[in-house]
Design goal:
Helix content: 25-40%
Number of strands: 20
Family: Belongs to the peptidase M17 family.
GO cellular component, one term: cytoplasm
InterPro entries: Leucine_aapep/pepB (IPR011356), Macro_dom-like (IPR043472), Peptidase_M17_C (IPR000819), Peptidase_M17_N (IPR008283)
Protein name: Leucyl aminopeptidase
Keywords: Aminopeptidase, Hydrolase, Manganese, Protease
Shape: elongated
Oligomer: single chain
Strand content: 15-25%
């Protein structure tokens, strides 16, 4: 039985209360002291009395040292980050604390940032602490008491004049990522297309962006035929979400599209393995919706229009068939070779609708699209397709700086014949065991109206996976921070 919507929708999620502490020497309780690896550790000015042997602790990556001083009523937790730690390393180290050692935080904590640590260090640390409060057991009944993070105070000692601003930014980014976690991890009988459209409406009201939703009837009037074809095997109403954030005097207009297949059986070309994980096939939609929350919450000076086509790809006597020829919003006809190549169909209508009706300067789509991407990059990197060199470089830099890597693959015209059909304008799948991600990207390119600044990011291997934070595969939130980081630099 699905959990009521209002119990799971928390875009204004309450978490630890953050304050800047100018007198950290007076703090009692948990004190977090992060260190980069060194033979001679340098302690923060207010904690020079601590002297831990380098044999016991030298700041090596993934190490900790816990010291309790009953006289001062303090518990010191020294956190090793290794040499020259990047953003992801810092974030993960701090996420590990609230995820696995939450009892230490019952009376609050003080995070002491050393002078030489950059502002990005503070952001990564606070973000990690917030992300670590996430728990996967949404439906578990347990008598084990849970820490009420709303009542936990996080104090920050930092010499940075912007410490409060940085911490607030980090909390807003993390809260949006927590929403992405929720949307992807919740089961498909909860997160339906209608759930996502309700989520978008509520987030729009909360954070300040407009949302319009086309249901089946409205989508039919708009001739979103490829979008509708995928949905016709399911009793669940498809939802074509149009979200717009429009600040005063925007620098640029960015268009986003996110694949929202809330569950993918494969259709009549039914999946023979891994179907249990197909609730994650709306990872692109979740990333785009989470980005809209963060963009509006941080009040970025960029106009953003997001299209999120949401469907369930199911099987009944109304389901579309292999060999069917369907229409599309762009007016192109499509021969269906494989009903499990459905994501590119809804993205095709999303892209052409966005470009025709909203004319953004740059278009970026995110989708858990092909297993081919996983075969190429594994679970560490997403595939990037674009002919815009500047956009490609900016996406790579934006992702590298926060640990959400993307790497380019070609969009050469030599692959164009792979999507050519004898009976229709295009076919949705080439049916060959190679270049699957590239051919899918070439299919999408056909619906971009030769837009000069379009990028497709295939996040099939990065949106959902294994980590130390759960015993089963779970959401990573990949893509949301990447988009935010890119838009902030425009």
């Amino acid at each position: 039985m699905p959990v009521p919507f209002d119990l799971l929708f928390t875009p204004f999620q309450k978490n630890m209360k953050i304050s800047i502490d100018r007198l950290p020497q007076n703090h009692k309780g948990l004190i977090l002291l992060p260190f980069e690896e060194s033979e001679s550790l340098r302690y923060p000015t207010d904690f020079q009395n601590l002297k831990i042997s380098s044999v016991l602790f030298s700041g090596k990556k993934d190490t900790q040292f816990l010291l309790e001083d009953s006289a001062s009523e303090r518990t010191y937790l020294l956190i090793g980050l290794g040499k020259n730690p990047d953003y992801k390393t810092i974030q993960t180290a701090f996420r590990r604390l609230t995820a696995k050692q939450s009892r230490l935080f019952e009376k609050g904590a003080l995070l002491a940032i050393q002078e030489e640590m950059k502002d990005s260090f503070l952001e990564a640390a606070v973000s990690g602490l917030y992300l670590g409060t996430y728990r996967l057991g949404h439906f578990k009944k347990t008598e084990e008491p849970k820490l009420d993070w709303e009542n936990v105070s996080l104090r920050i000692s930092s010499s940075s004049e912007d410490a409060e601003k940085i911490a607030e930014r980090a909390s807003k980014i993390a809260n949006a990522q927590l929403q992405v976690f929720n949307l992807v991890d919740l089961p498909s009988n909860t997160v339906t297309p209608e759930y996502l459209s309700d989520w978008a409406r509520n987030a729009g009201k909360t954070f300040g962006f407009e949302v319009k939703v086309l249901g089946r009837a409205e989508a039919k009037e708009q001739h979103l035929d490829a979008f509708l074809a995928v949905s016709q095997g399911s009793h669940r109403e498809p939802q074509f979400i149009i979200a717009q954030y429009n600040p005063e005097n925007p620098k640029k207009h960015i268009g986003l599209v996110g694949k929202g297949v809330t569950f993918d059986t494969g259709g009549l070309n039914i999946k023979t393995a891994g179907m249990v994980h197909m609730k994650c096939d709306m990872g692109g939609a979740a990333a785009v919706l989470g980005a809209m929350q963060a963009i509006a919450d941080l009040k970025l000076p960029v106009k953003v229009t997001a299209i999120v086509p949401c469907v369930e790809n199911s099987v009944d006597n109304q389901a579309f068939l292999p060999s069917d020829v369907i229409g599309s919003y762009a007016g192109k006809t499509i021969e269906i070779i494989d009903t499990d190549a459905e994501g590119r169909l809804i993205l095709a209508d999303g892209l052409s609708y966005l470009i025709k009706n909203h004319q953004p300067d740059t278009v970026i789509d995110l989708a858990t699209l092909t297993g081919s991407t996983v075969g190429t990059f594994g679970y560490e990197c997403a595939a990037l397709f674009t002919n815009d060199i500047d956009l490609s470089q900016n996406l790579q830099k934006s992702g590298e700086s926060i640990g959400e890597r993307v790497w380019p693959l070609p969009l050469w015209d030599v692959y164009q014949p792979e999507i050519e059909s004898e009976i229709a304008d295009l076919k949705n799948y080439h049916g060959k065991p190679f270049a699957g991600a590239i051919v899918a990207a070439k299919f999408l390119e056909a619906f971009t109206e030769n837009h000069g600044s379009w990028a497709h990011i295939d996040i099939a291997g990065t949106a959902f996976g294994d980590s130390e934070f759960a015993k089963t595969k779970h959401a990573t939130g990949f893509g949301m921070h990447l988009l935010l980081n890119l838009l902030e630099k425009i």
